[in-house]
User: Fold this.
Amino acid sequence: MTERKGPYELRLRVNGEERAALTRPAETLLRLLRERLGLTGPKCGCENGDCGACTVLIDGVPTKSCMVLAVECEGRELTTIEGLRDHPVQRAFSAENGFQCGFCTPGMIMNAVALVRAHPEPNEEADRNWMGSNLCRCTGYEGIRRALAAARAELAARAGLMPRAKERP
Amino acid sequence: MDHARYLGGSPERTDAPAKTGGALRYTDDRVRPGTLHAALLYSPYAHARIASVDLSRAEAAPGVRGAFSGADWPDTLIGLYMGDKPPLARETVRYYGEPVAAVVADSEAETLAAIRLVEASFEALPPLASPRDSLAPGAAVLHPGLGSYRRIPAILPEPGTNVANRTRIRKGDPEEAFARAPVVVSGSFSFPPGDHAAMEPRVAIAEYGLDGRLTVTSSTQSPFGVRTLLAKGLGLPERRIRVIAPPVGGGFGGKAGIQLEPLACLLAMRFPGRPVRLANAREADMVSSPGRPGLESTVRIAAERDGAILAMDIELLFDSGAYADYAVNVSRAAAVACTGPYKVPNVKADALCVYTNHPFATAFRGFGHIELSYATERALDLLADELGMDPAALREKNAAQPGHTTPTGAVLDPNTGDLPACIALVKERLGWDEGRRRLMPDGKVRAKGLACFWKAPAIPTFTDAGATLAFAEDGSAVLTTGVVEIGQGCFDGLRLIVAEALRMDPSMVRVEPEADTDRSPHDWTTAASRSLFMAGRAALGAAEDAVAQLKRVASAPLRCPEEDLEIGDGRIYLRDDPAHGLPISAVALGYVYENGNAIGGPIIGRGRYIARGLSGMDPESGEGRPGLEWTMGAEGVELELDPRDGSCRVLRSACAMDVGKVIHPALARGQLVGAMAMGIGYATREAFSFDSRQGVQNASLRDYKLLRYGEDPEYFVDFVETPQGDGPYGARGLGEQGIIGMPGAIAQAASLAAGVQLCELPITPEYLWTSMRKERP
Ligand code: FES
Ligand code: FES
Assistant:
């Protein structure tokens, strides 16, 4: 284990790119992403692990970036909302009104991306466990629930498992 | 008007790509390099005398540029309707979480380290824990300066007491009605204050430019309100202040007033040329910045044996906490609508906004109507019980209709919504007539409840909205208003309104997503569910103005009278010969003839709206017309209670609301569903819990339990459309109302399930369990 003191340069792999940033040992991943790498997609809703607005993927695992030190991420593969490009989950959130103010959305989507990967089939219990870690104050979760269903249908259709539920232009 | 082309369609929101792509920049996503960071020291006491504040160690800490206390601004008082709040506490602290000192440093880490070095000492004073405490004879007077505070005339404080505002309603002869009524019921109903808990904590970034202008970017619903109040509070003219309102991560009223901005500006004025960022951590956002009021109330109802209401006697005591903020108008709004949507010929009501030593209260979705509705709906349930009448039938019997008068004596006009139709829809959704209470085989109990609501916006009589419409080279139109995007999606409604008026595909209409007092037309505030209505009217006006100008310019090259021209699908053409015309793109920036001669110039459509026919209220009787339009509706739930442990879950919820005209069905439904969910939280779990010294015990999202995924019920939403004659295409506002009836409906159902009348909120398993135990000796 290496010991770090004072500001130092951290090298990370974020959204498929090698990035370097000056950081402090006590800095959280959330702050590093937002303040040093300009990735303001992850949001700061509580910095206490309660809201999930800061969720990113670390080696594919959805993680609250406010609860992780940046230094722990050296050599890991990070994905933020900015690293998704036209992902079926994003399209489903757009089409199904899975958001209103949008503040919870980046975290919600990152968690959902991992959820539908782990559970491609509809699974109410898994959904409740995964999505229960992200708060949304606006939607009453109705649109988010619809978005999950739509994203799963789209992914299944892509995998050729079943016909497309809804053709999108 | 021919058949609507675009209204009633649900195109994808224009902000969807930005919001689902993480590209939308909220206020705190716009911090410039070189920005200074402020941190605050919060009072650990709900009520105390400040003995000393020593800033010297903080000032000497690394990176610190300055440290401040209340003494730095000895005369400044900030407020919304009444200036009662110092930017930093002076002499006394009046609530747990009140800012006492500020430190400004180069980085957030340094400022947070330095704020811990501020040494403040306090002498604790006994806190006032409820409105009744504050009104008791001999109670400490929290604001001895109440009589001298700057305020608007509609607010009537009672100096020498803790009453920040009292609104009286006196209609008919309630005394006589109570004396002769065959049935009288009465009850007391209450709940503690709570929080909006919008996912975006409040933040303000202020810069006092070297040019002498003050710019503040803020998570606000009210850029123009902030500008006006900063001008008043700081003594700068409006022309030297610029307020930028990026999209907001959830408002719910919590960002409708003026909050972090004054202190951020005062700090910035000490460091000209450097922006100062003042951001709430979640805990501060919950207790230091304002939440929603609590309530203590008593309602008496006089009725005939057949259920016809003769009179109501209502006392609503709003727990405003330490400062008045919006709560003085919240209590007033509750008075205006105090009876709920019922025909009540005789009314006596007193709505008081009372200072206590709780975190202070501001606007909250519903603006006083949840409170009054909870109180009157609960009292109606007592009446239904007393009469042995179905609670829905009692409401149907007394439903307010056009021609009836409101508590202030204003006549409900023909635009007024159809309440009986709403009640019928909710009953149908819930299978009301199949029975309201069912014992399940597993020992749980299912029960249904139904409540009604109405709401009129509590707005100044001169509430306004402006809009401009301009065009780009491609013939697309851009609408600029002062409305703030707070999640409600108003811009998409406005876009459809403009598209409809220009008969142009909505994809060719863009709405400027950011309000900026330097550039946007004036707009009162994004609150009171009035943006779609008022900015919608202004947008409609701007579109019509633009169309007239387009026709005028096009009539020259088309060689025809303007009146013969029609607009549609991006073209201007002869009505009787549609093939003969021009694309809008050839006219909107001026028409150029073949030889190079040009006419016209950029078309700029202008639209404006101001509230119609509103008046103030008589201070003695409340008489007047303070409410613009009345939105009515009914809501209901079915819930399941486990009598063994008090656990309770809302299974199904239904709302039917008369919205005039649905402009964008998907977004309209989203607003209602979101409001219903918030109402369920309000009724079942959300409230501050206080320790014996009135410190807040649950100031985090871990302890303040919001509804999570999987705890949401099934939602049924129905719209009734009685057109609002003066609304854009008949529409009226719908952003708040879905929350109002939920606490009443849930309390009714839970009381039925538990077999005991529940008079407090939130209805937690613990409260249910103890109430049921009390009932059984
Ligand atoms: S900001 Fe990380 S969980 Fe809320
Ligand atoms: S969309 Fe606003 S918090 Fe989820």
About this structure: The CA atoms of residues 712 and 759 of chain B lie 24 Å apart. The first strand of chain B starts at residue 36 and ends at 42. The first helix of chain B runs from residue 16 to 20.
